[in-house]
Amino acid sequence: MSTRGALLAAWSVTCATLMQPAYADPVADFYRGKQIFLVHSGGEGGGYSTYAQIFAPYLAKYIPGAPRIVVQSMPGAGGIRLLQHFSSIAPRDGTYIGLVQSGAAFAPLLGTARTFEPLKINWIGAMSRVAAVCAAWHTSGIVTWQDLMEKQYIVGSSGAGSLTETQPALLNKLYGTKIKIVAGYTGAHDIYLAMERGELHGRCGSGASSIEISRPGWVRDGKVKIPVQFAVERSSALPDVPTVYELARDDRVRSVMKLVLAPVEMNRPLLTTPDVPSARLQALRSAFHAAIEDPEFRDIAQKQRLEIDANPGDRVAQIIADAYKLPPDIVATAKEAMSFGGGD
Fold it and tell me: What residues have CB less than 8 Å from 239, skipping those under 6 apart?
């Protein structure tokens, strides 16, 4: 072939290549150059803030188009305020992601909030499956389960629907503990300060890891005592601490506890708004999984004492759907048990 022929052939190949249809990624095209807001429902300085700040860059890394993620705080009513915002005001395009207390997803079922529909919210995944605990300051005199049955235990709550309110209320109603719940605290940080001041005995309804994140050494060094954990089975980290499930006095209480403990299976869930296009939701779920498994994130999480035991978004959605299908009498008993009576 002549030089001219070779050039013409090469040009033909180049033109044919340029004329091939471009298979663009619409999800990457949407997120490219965008700013995403990761809004957590905890107070500044608490466990939710720490999780959000550490996880955000890794989540951004795996979202197609590599958008920038900005972390914001929206505390209030144990996560209910955030879910209300995501259900009604936040843009429904996949640019808003929430990190919320798991108990808030069950607030409409239990009657503590009816202004959002958890079954319509898009769940991305849950960061852990960690049992909540009751923690008491070392000078409070509360050390064992028997102490909870015999002594007044004064705890702080961050609002209606939060585990820090519903869990101690449940212990009072179903088990006969003597817990006094003081509402009005904005988050974990405020409650921990009140414990240090002697204003409160403790906090009931948070994970042991959350305490260690905000106050390193408190659990390890015995500054707080843990008399009970909210779980079906004992955590490997707390093998000597009894669970509320094993302490249940009959089968009906155990059935109620299965509903109550549903949030444990989806602790620290991430979500986005209703009506997000399915391709974007799938991309967010895939990015969540990849970020959770990122070796660098895992290393940092371990150093920061973050407990990571993720559940995928479809599993989180199923846990919530199953809870909303439970018999009315079981729900009614759980609702009554978890309602805040304001006192001892």
Answer: none
